[in-house]
Amino acid sequence: MKIKKYKVVTSTNALAKKIKTPKPWLVLLAEKQSLGYGRKGSAWFSPKGGLYFSIILPKSKIEDLQTLTILAAFIVAKVIKENFNLEPFIKLPNDVWVNGKKIAGILTENVVGKEVKLSVMGIGLNTNIEKFPRNLENTATSLKIELGREVNNEKILKQIVGELKNQLKTISE
Amino acid sequence: MKFKFKIENKEYEIEILEEGQGQVKIKVGGKEFSFGEREKEEIAVAKTVLPKRDFSKKEIKTPIAGIVSEIFVKEGDFVKKEQKTLLVSAMKMENEIVSDFEGRVQKILVQKKQEVKEGDILIFLQ
Known about the structure:
The complex is a heterodimer of chains A (about 170) and B (about 130). Chain A contains 4 helices and 7 strands; from the N terminus they run βαββαββββαα. Chain A has helices at about 10-20, 60-85, 145, 155-170, and strands spanning about 5-10, 25-35, 50-55, 90, 95-100, 100-110, 115-125. In chain A, helix 2 runs antiparallel to helix 4.
């Protein structure tokens, strides 16, 4: 798995869309994002400690990408449940909640002409975030807050990307 | 063959005479001009090459149903190939619709927040 690591970026999705020759399954990983965003441009709080990455998806049919995006929420939830014994709740289509608060968000962006030219799936998972600002503390949580300990970001990243690869293979067959 | 005609009230008398061997003599107001009947004057006309134009329909369509959440161009704008024109937000994805052609935006058929169906035409380019 090829992972490009960055200390800080505006947004891993924005960066991924600028790559001239995007290779499928390339992962862009940032320690923090200065302008992380979710659907409809809503901000995604992205301080150091969280897991923020984008995956260049292989060229696929738009319906398959749609299915994969829904599956991505299930995959993130599954990884959380299996690794940490928490009870995640999938808030369709793109969010994962734990104990009534948002813990992860997924945003797939496509660049489309007559066909899909580029697809990028961005995932933000609140892993080792100690505290949220006051305006978010009632609606957002992190694995660290829920578990009382730090988790291994890279291990989680590899599990999620591995599962996505398997799922897309199944969908497009 | 003789004939007369007037230009700005001045009368001219023209006589056309055949001289033989394909020569023609024309007398205008007493002055004589000789022409070879088969002579033709080569007029150099600058060759102009019209730019190749693509008259096929330049329509930008949405490949997915959703809501137009952003419009990045306005009517009259020149759009380059691969330029981002609109953003269509579907339930699960955001789709940047880029132009497959270059041309001027003739008509934008949708508005922000408008719902669109798969295959709907969003923009006409000239």
